[in-house]
Design a protein that fits this description.
Layout: H1 2-13, H2 15-20, E1 36-51, E2 62-76, E3 84-91, E4 98-102, H3 114-121, E5 125-129, E6 145-147, E7 150-151, H4 153-179, E8 185-191, H5 193-204, E9 211-215, H6 221-238, H7 242-255
Parallel strand pairs: 4-5, 4-8, 8-9
Antiparallel strand pairs: 1-2, 2-3, 3-5, 6-7
């Protein structure tokens, strides 16, 4: 009995014991209703250094010495012919008992592993999803249409909502598999497309999160994409030179704080 208690305490305070748990076998029982798990990998990453830009509601910060268990989950919805990837970062030390799902931007369902650095540095377990398509905020040509004029409805629905619910479930399940308990609190954090995703989660999957931070939500794409193009159309029509745009952008950049 004493040995069991001692080993339990060591598991929480000794990073080597936790690191040994960072193996695919620790996550082999993960499952997702309506989906088929294709592959799960897990490996410890230590001494991570990331210089993050301002985004996803975090101020830019130089993260150093980060140690995580990186879990990669690949799955499909049978019959839908999609392949979706979820990445979860689990702190090897000082987990705060909470989970953060990080949103994407533009046409990207997730913002990549860099977006996980600050929440994990703050003690959260964190995850993102690629939604089943390339992780590029500007690229929709490669996945949004199955042919000219024909929408890829499967990937569009994954991008809009389904993959978001999926990775929230998988992220929390991976957290439980690693630490032995579900997160006490779970949060959404996103900006722009991530902001839209946060509103979608609140409306369609309201039980997934205890709190949602959804800033600058990219709503009503059929209107705002046209409105973004309109100024450029007018400037091109009247022959406005690009130097004016560059100088305006430069002045704005200098007004925005980018460091803590």
């Amino acid at each position: 009995m004493f040995l069991t208690i001692l080993l339990t305490l060591i598991a929480f305070v000794h990073p080597l014991v936790v690191t040994s748990q960072c193996a695919p076998s620790s996550f082999e029982n993960l499952s997702l209703f309506g989906a088929e798990i294709l592959d799960i990998s897990a490996s410890p990453l230590t001494d991570i250094a990331v210089s993050t830009i301002q985004g996803n509601n975090f101020v830019a910060h130089n993260v150093t010495g980060l140690a995580v268990c990186e879990v990669k989950i690949q799955y499909t919805h049978p019959g839908q012919n999609d392949t979706i990837n979820v990445v979860v970062w689990l702190p090897l030390e000082d987990w705060n008992g909470r989970f953060v799902a990080v949103g994407g931007g533009g046409y990207s369902t997730g913002s990549g592993t860099t977006s996980l650095a600050i929440p994990v540095w703050l003690g959260y377990s964190a995850a993102f999803t690629d939604g089943g398509h390339t992780n590029s905020s500007l690229d929709a040509d490669s996945w949004a249409l199955v042919s000219p004029g024909n929408v890829n409805w499967v990937l569009l629905q994954d991008f809009a909502a389904i993959a978001l619910d999926d990775f929230a479930t998988l992220g929390k399940s991976a957290t439980k598999a690693f630490y032995g308990s579900m997160p006490k609190y779970s949060y959404w954090n996103g900006c722009s497309t991530g902001g839209r995703q946060g509103h979608m989660m609140a409306q369609r999957y309201p039980t997934q999160f205890d709190g949602i931070l959804a800033s600058a939500p990219a709503f009503n794409w059929h209107k705002f994409l046209v409105s973004e193009y309109w100024p450029q159309f007018i400037m091109n029509s009247i022959g406005m030179i690009n130097d004016t745009l560059f100088l305006t952008s430069l002045k704005l950049d200098r007004c925005i704080p980018t460091t803590m």
